[in-house]
Amino acid sequence: MIRAKKSLGQNFLIDKKIINKIVNTVNIQNKTILEIGPGTGNLTSSILVQKPKKVFVIEKDNALANQLRLTFKDKITVFNEDILKFNEASLSKDKLIVFGNLPYNISTEILTKWILGFDENCWFDHLILMFQKEVADRINAKFNTSNYGRLSILSDWKLKVKKKFDIDPASFSPRPKIESSLLFFTPKKDFYNINSKNLEFITRIFFNHRRKMLKKPYNQIFNGNKIILDKLKIDLTLRPQNLDTETYFKITKEYENLQS
After folding, report:
1. Can you name the residues that pair with 162 across neighbouring β-strands?
2. Can you tell me the distance from the alpha carbon of 135 to that of 151, in angstroms, rounded to the nearest whole number?
3. Where in the chain is the domain with CATH 3.40.50.150?
4. Which residues, 6 or more positions from 91, have their beta carbon under 8 angstroms from its beta carbon?
5. Are 206 and 212 in contact (CB under 8 A)?
6. In this structure, are residues 44 and 101 in contact, taking their beta carbons and an 8 Å threshold?
7. Contact between 46 and 19 (Cβ < 8 Å)
8. What digits encode the pLDDT tens for the residues 91-110?
9. d(C-alpha 234, C-alpha 247), whole Å
10. Which residues, 6 or more positions from 166, have their beta carbon under 8 angstroms from its beta carbon?
11. pLDDT (tens digit, 9 = 90+) per residue, 183-225?
12. Collapsed DSSP state (helix, strand, coil) of residue 7
């Protein structure tokens, strides 16, 4: 009997109604699919019923990867590898639809890797991913809310994000202590041409002072430059969570212009 490994953040999805609901979020017939962390293959089985063109799965756990090969044989291609080191764009000329019950301990790392790893020619059509509910709420948060922060801004930079539904802990084995949420991502065709490291730097400076007024981080970055302030039309008495994502992209662009 295969047991979930805490070290790999494994919680196997076992609720058939939820599994079918996830697979039915998008039409996958004759599409090329990538599944991350298939575990015991419950979601994989449901994906195959929809008659996709091709199914790739990435499973880090050696025992699970071997079991998946035995169970599904030539119906899927199994990669026994670490998703954080994997080159997804090399898998197929087709744009992929990605499903993932992501390991809780590296879920944001995986998402960040994918956001930073594509330009106008994106390798996927959709990402259908499960996160801890609190993480999903941060990813999908809008400005002027308490969950809004660096992860919200980074996600909105290149992706359209839509929350589909929450998933009860009872849908998993072993049962996690918290709720999960399913998010649906579609890549944006047009997004700000800024450097990811600069966006990360700007948002880190601002949100390190998230309870304080914008004056301190603004002066730290721009040394009180009034021309840029007038151009950006920022009220420095506001807090970081009061600026929308587009304003952070514009701030990053102005910072880059100063560096060039």
Report:
1. 184
2. 9
3. 6-187
4. 32, 34, 56
5. no
6. no
7. yes
8. 999 999 999 988 888 999 99
9. 9
10. 133, 179, 180, 181, 182
11. 999 999 999 999 999 999 999 999 998 889 999 999 999 999 9
12. helix
SS3 of residue 132 by DSSP? strand
The CATH class of 6-187 is: alpha beta
Q: Does residue 195 sit in helix, strand or coil?
A: coil
The tokens describing 80, both together, are 């026994």
pLDDT in tens, 128-160: 999 999 999 999 999 999 999 999 999 999 999
Token pair 């979020």 is at which residue? 25
Tell me the C-alpha distance between 119 and 241, whole Å: 27
Q: How far apart are CA 252 and CA 258, in angstroms?
A: 10
User: Which residue reads 């025992």 in tokens?
Assistant: 63
The CATH code belonging to domain 196-259 is 1.10.8.100
Rounded distance, CA 153 to CA 141, Å?
9
Q: What is the mean pLDDT of residues 4-14?
A: 59
Ramachandran class of 114: left when φ > 0, alpha when ψ lies in -120 to 50, beta otherwise: alpha
What is the rounded distance in angstroms from the CA atom of residue 138 to the CA atom of residue 220?
Answer: 26
